[in-house]
UniProtKB/TrEMBL annotation:
Signal peptide segment: 1-25
Keywords: Cell outer membrane, Membrane, Receptor, Signal, TonB box, Transmembrane, Transmembrane beta strand, Transport
Membrane topology listed for this record: Multi-pass membrane protein
Domain TonB-dependent receptor plug residue range list: 50-164
Pfam families in the record: Plug (PF07715), TonB_dep_Rec_b-barrel (PF00593)
Residue runs in coiled coils: none
Protein name per its UniProtKB record: TonB-dependent receptor
Source lineage: Bacteria, Pseudomonadati, Pseudomonadota, Alphaproteobacteria, Sphingomonadales
Length: 951
């Protein structure tokens, strides 16, 4: 695997892990020779300058050796990328709209704070939060990926708070190349296939060039398993571990107990009477009563062991199914010998599907004893106890499982002019372009309840010898009685409460950009050429979303088709069990201008070479006004052979995205929300929307590093160390539903009391969630990278390459900036995205006939939360000043994954290859609270094989 990094003078790729190479603008094409790859972390085009910011580069060989059907997976393995999404993340989600979305997160600060570019140009977002989907990129033509991890905003543009991921395509590819591959897991699932083809040729005697590519990928995904503890494919690592709140804050025993094989005492697979004198009567699939098996140590509504058949967590997809199709074309015409007029067209299509959970849990229902579906023996027991109703909970296994289907389609076109010209005897390079992108996303949910119809359907009576819905209005509008005592559900009732049509959200986003970048070296000072880059960009972002009338409300969405008006349903929407999407729209414009300089301070054999790099950018947002970003940094190539020092400090900004500003209120159901006012669990309908009054986030990013590159005393050896410190102020955050209620209950922020209504109005208990510029984030740590390339090892023809990258997160402190809250440090929390240590190590051997590849991916042991104190006895009492709770176990081990692969050159044009990911079939943490797919591999051992060809 070839991984390159900036930070030294010019050198060949064959002899060094490029800790720094001659700097060109990120969109300038390197020469076509294998020995020359040029990278940069700035807009300056000055040969011999190396960026002061740390940067990792993956070239074509690195991408190919990792043999992933989606390049996103290869890049996301880099230790500096923490909290990226992908097909293993968001599989439990119904309403987020991010299912199957492949987006990068640098430094763990989120995908919305990582700027992702294609040939140095922005790409229209695949989600209303502005993040593009890497699955929509033309992947076969990508010749390298630059990952800049600091000080990038002033050079590359707003939103680059965590850094920049820039994809560089081979715009002048010549010939035909392709790739065909397939894969499957050791469990016989997640079958995948990928086919890619690219073609490039010169036209009109070299006066023009045409490049085309197309590709298709299909991943079957890994769906939900069996009810209880059975995961898909017979995977046996799930153990239904839970953290149970005992309510004890006085000390002595821990407040939270971590138990395996946990089950709720409030519901069962086919129903459970969970309160009153008949508590403990459960029902089998036929509706026959039986005694529920509670297990032992029942606390706070949970027990250990017993009847686990009603567990819903095994229904979550372990990996979303995905299909993607992409076509790309570029046509360029030479204008004279020094300019090219070009256009690119790209169409990408991605479909994903996931199952969020088993069933549709209803833990707190009231059933009348006289309901004709209640067995006679239970009706008799009601009479004996003198009750007319009982409390009831069910997983609703008989209703089936919700399915979410997401379809994203991207249309993108660019028209540009790039080249160079002489001005006053000096050469200046330029790139002017305009771009339009449209992304259309459809989220369609099926097999899901209409809550109010469900409530009417389960309230059944006998009338004239027939079982009917009790409410005459509901009966007149098609209500069919639903039997939730057991698993015998009529088709008519099922179609009434769960119609063939479901919630949908159809979004259209557009992005229009016009930009110019100019660079040159107009004069020399005493130490060498002084270089400048300057330019500007105008951008307009727009979105609109349409939702179904049952979710958005009939007053907002015209009724029609399969969504007839129903007086039982709420006219204002919010009727679905989940997926209550809303209508909305919003837009904003951005104007930016920047200036960057590379200024040599001295250069001599005795003192080395010192260069200053500085940039400033003014950005004007139509929503919040103007704001400055800047950076100051430099590099010193010391007189010591191969030793370089570098550093940069910057001010970067990120404006609120369309979602944060104008998101249509999304409604979800919280079926078991704790109400501190009544000390009970209640059903809450939560609505989350945008805040147009948000202002930009401001970040301060500092990086200091040292690199030793290809010293004469050890050719082929490279090592670097870079310290980083990132602080973000005015960070946009959304108060959680629990915080809003808790701040009201404790009178911390009285204004939050206006955000909810728990008086159980006809529409249900409601709670409004919004975002504010109240938080701050501070993270620091360091990156280490080393490599050694040994030519003809032990006399064998070829080369042996050893490489390693590691990131250590010292701290990741989030301060909500709210009264009564204390900062929290999540570094080392393995339920999050920032373990203390994360590394990637590669060993590869290659010659003219074959190659072998071994890779290790590792992250360190951690905890559930740094806000826990682990103890089993003599625990301290809760102290609000520290907000630390006590827990019986607070350990979450790390993991080591080993991948192996290789290739064999069948002919000059054909190469066969194989790859085995997670060779030891390492399972996620088995006995801990939650599996975290952002860190742990849920899939298991995966085999891949394919053939590449090139003519």
């Amino acid at each position: 695997m070839r991984i390159l990094r900036s930070g030294s003078s010019s050198m060949t790729v064959l002899s060094v892990l490029a800790l720094g190479a001659p700097a060109l603008a990120q969109d300038q094409q390197p020469t076509q020779t294998k020995d020359s790859i040029v990278v940069t972390g700035s807009r300056i085009q000055a040969d011999g300058f190396s960026a002061p910011v740390p940067m990792t580069v993956l070239d074509t060989e690195a991408i190919e050796s990792n043999a992933q059907p989606n390049i996103f997976t290869t890049i996301a393995q880099l230790p500096s990328l923490q909290g990226s999404s992908g097909t293993q993340v968001n599989t439990y989600s119904t309403s987020s709209g991010q299912q199957g979305l492949s987006a990068f997160s640098l430094r763990g600060v989120g995908a919305i704070r990582t700027l992702t570019l294609l040939d140095g140009q922005r790409v229209v977002g695949a989600n209303v939060n502005g993040t593009p989907d890497i699955s929509l990129f033309p992947q076969l033509l990508i010749k390298r990926v630059d990952v800049v991890t600091g000080g990038a905003g002033a050079s590359y543009g707003s939103d680059a708070v965590g850094g920049v991921v820039n994809f560089i395509t081979d715009t002048h590819f010549e010939g035909i190349k392709g790739n065909v591959a397939g894969g499957i897991t050791t469990y016989g699932d997640n079958a995948s296939v990928v086919g890619q083809l690219a073609y490039g040729t010169s036209l009109f005697n070299g006066g023009a060039h045409l490049t085309l590519s197309t590709e298709y990928q299909r991943d079957e995904g890994i769906g939900g398993g069996e009810w209880g503890l059975g995961l898909a494919g017979g995977r046996d690592w799930f153990n239904e571990t839970a953290s149970i709140d005992t309510g004890n804050t006085a000390g002595g025993a821990p407040q939270f107990l971590v138990i395996d094989r946990a089950q709720s005492a409030n519901w069962a697979k086919y129903g459970l009477i969970n309160g009153g004198p008949l508590r403990g009567i459960a029902f089998d699939e036929t509706g026959s009563p039986r005694q529920f098996e509670y297990g032992t140590d029942c606390i706070s509504g949970f027990c250990q062991g017993g009847d686990l058949s009603g567990n819903v967590s095994t229904g979550r997809s372990l990996q979303s199914g995905l299909q993607r199709f992409n076509t790309y074309g570029r046509f360029g015409v030479n204008i004279g010998s020094r300019a090219e007029l070009y256009t690119t067209l790209n169409f990408g299509w991605v479909q994903s599907n996931n199952q969020p959970v088993h069933g549709q849990n209803k833990p707190s229902l009231t059933i009348q004893c006289a309901n004709p579906f209640v067995p006679a023996s239970v009706q008799a027991a009601c009479a004996d106890e003198g009750i007319t109703s009982f409390s009831y909970g069910t997983s609703n296994a008989a209703l089936g499982n919700t399915q979410v289907h997401t379809d994203r389609r991207q249309y993108r076109g660019v028209l540009g002019l790039k080249g160079s010209l002489d001005v006053a005897g000096d050469e200046w390079s330029y790139d002017l372009y305009v771009q339009h992108g449209t992304n259309k996303t459809k989220v369609d949910v099926s097999n899901i309840l209409l809550n109010r119809r469900f409530e009417q359907a389960i309230n059944a009576v006998e009338l004239n010898g027939a079982i009917v819905c009790a409410d005459p209005v509901a009966r007149a509008n098609g209500c069919q009685p639903l039997n939730i005592i057991g698993g015998q559900v009529s088709e008519a009732a099922l179609r009434y409460v769960q119609p063939d049509f479901g919630p949908y959200q159809h979004t259209r986003q557009t992005q229009d950009v016009a930009g110019v970048n100019i660079s040159g070296s107009p004069f020399d000072n005493w130490a060498g050429p002084v270089s400048f880059a300057f330019g500007g960009e105008w951008r307009h972002e727009f979105y609109t979303v349409e939702a179904d009338p049952y979710g958005a409300g009939f007053s907002n969405t015209p009724a029609g088709g399969n969504y007839p008006a129903d007086p039982i349903l709420g006219a204002d929407g919010g009727n679905w069990y989940a997926g209550n999407y809303k209508n909305g729209s919003g837009a904003y414009s951005v104007k930016e201008a920047y200036l960057e300089t590379d200024f040599p301070l001295f250069a001599s054999d005795g003192a080395g070479e010192l260069r200053l790099n500085a940039a400033a950018r003014i950005t004007d947002y139509s929503t919040s006004g103007s704001i400055w970003a800047w950076k100051v940094g430099g590099t010193w190539d010391t007189p010591i052979d191969g030793l370089r020092l570098r550093g940069v400090t910057s001010r970067d900004v990120r404006a609120p995205n369309l979602s944060e500003l104008y998101a249509a209120p999304v409604t979800i159901t919280l079926p078991n929300f704790f109400d501190p006012f009544t000390n009970q669990s209640i059903l809450v309908i939560q609505s989350t929307g945008g805040n147009p009054n948000l202002k930009p986030e401001i970040a301060r990013n500092t990086n200091l590093g040292v690199a030793l590159a290809n010293p004469g005393w050890l050719p082929g050896f490279n090592i670097s160390f870079d310290y980083y410190n990132l602080e973000i102020d005015d960070a946009v955050q959304s108060l959680t539903a629990n915080q809003i209620v808790d701040f009201c209950f404790r009178n911390v922020i009285p204004a939050t009391c206006q955000a909810f209504d728990f008086s159980n109005p006809p529409g249900g208990n409601t709670l409004q969630v919004a975002s504010f510029n109240t938080a701050s984030i501070k993270t620091s740590g360091f990156d280490i990278e080393a490599s050694y390339r040994w030519l003809d090892p032990l006399g064998l023809p070829g080369s042996l390459t050893l490489r390693g990258l590691a990131t250590h997160v010292i701290e990741f402190v989030t301060d909500q900036g709210l009264p009564g809250t204390v900062p929290t440090d999540t570094a080392g929390e393995n339920l999050g995205a920032t373990p203390n240590w994360k590394y990637l190590a590669i060993q590869s051997y290659e010659n003219d006939l074959f190659s072998l590849f071994v890779q290790e991916r590792w992250f360190s042991d951690g905890v559930f939360s740094n806000n826990y104190i682990e103890c089993t006895a003599n625990c301290p009492a809760f102290d609000p000043a520290t907000n630390k709770r006590t827990i019986s176990s607070n350990y979450m081990p790390g993991a080591l994954y080993i991948d192996v692969g290789g290739s064999y050159n069948l002919t000059e044009n054909f190469t066969a290859y194989f790859k085995v990911d997670n060779l030891t079939d390492k399972s996620p943490v088995r006995n801990y609270i939650f599996n975290n797919p952002a860190l742990y591999d849920q899939v298991g051992r995966t085999y891949r094989a394919g053939v590449r060809f090139k003519f």
